[in-house]
Each structure stands twice: as C-alpha cells, then as structure tokens.
C-alpha cells in the first residue's frame, strides 16, 4: 500500500448562465445580477478543459414580484385659504410587501400613506418598494385637492354680487343710444 499525499489543487471555474442567445460568464465564485425574469440554463465549465461542462440547473426560473398598485382617497380643503386637505394611499399590493409613499414626485418619502395639512393643488403621487427603492410606480401625477363645493359656491356668489354692483354703478355713465335720425353736418 502506498502513502497518499494531498496536494493543494487550484481549480478555476467559470459559471455560464445561458438564456436565449446570451451567455453570462462569472469567473471564479460570484453572483450575477441584473438578469431579466425568465428561465436560465446554469452550467459550470472547467476553465482549463472547456469541454468539461456540468449542468447545475437546466431550468432555473427567475421571477419578478407583481407590479406595485394602491388606492388613493382624499379630503378637500374645507374653505378658501385653508390647509386641512388630506390624501390617503391604501391597499398597497405588489413588490416585496413593504412600501413608501410620496406626494411630491419623489422629493420626499414616508412609510405611512397618510398625508394631512394639504392646501389646494395638484399632487404627484408615487409608491415605491421599500425593499428595492428603485422600483417606483406613479399612481397619479396630477391628483387634485380643491376647496369644498360650498366654499366654491360662496366664492362664486361673492364674485357675482361684485359684478352686479359694478354693472349698476356703471349704468349711469353709459352713453345714451339715439333712436331718432339726426342730421350730421
């Protein structure tokens, strides 16, 4: 019986991920990122003997989470000049299950879907996956918060009253219309 000696052996591997007609190479040990959803044929190949290939997973499926979605509700400002409007974003679905919300086009984000103290105007409402903050969906890019209808009607009444008053005051200075023929020299 002969003595067995163990010698350190350096094995270089290249992992090939083949999908459609594209081949991704990962020399050594590592990760491959930014792969599109789909089915991949994952193989390992000896760098020194390229004909030595072993299939690790001939049908590795990479999926993507469902698209982000949510519902929007609002409360209009109660009266002219007020700031008691509100937007509530609820029922969020998709992504990885944790969400962040913005009403200013992504200028700032918060974990709660409740926004209070709003003035009338247009709001750019977004949702993003808190686990993958690059995954952003526009829920509504011009969501309108207005004054309540009673305030708008009151404002309209005031404008009408002001216009009627102006017309009454102007009527006394309007030129008179001549209905009889006159001779102009």
Characterise this structure.
This protein is mostly beta strands and 185 residues long. Among the domains are: 13-62, no CATH class; 69-145, Immunoglobulin-like, CATH 2.60.40. It contains one helix and ten strands. The chain has one helix at residues 149-171, and strands at 13-19, 22-27, 38-46, 53-62, 69-75, 85-93, 99-102, 114-118, 121-129, 136-145. The strands form three sheets. A four-stranded antiparallel sheet has the order 2-1-3-4, with no helix packed on it. The protein has a three-stranded antiparallel sheet with strand order 5-6-8, with no helix packed on it. The chain has a three-stranded antiparallel sheet with strand order 7-9-10, with no helix packed on it. A hairpin with a 6-residue loop joins β9 (121-129) and β10 (136-145). The model is unreliable at 1-14 and 19-23 (pLDDT under 50).
Task: Describe what is shown at a glance.
The protein is mostly beta strands and 185 residues long. The protein has one helix spanning 149-171, and strands at 13-19, 22-27, 38-46, 53-62, 69-75, 85-93, 99-102, 114-118, 121-129, 136-145. It is built from 1 helix and 10 strands.
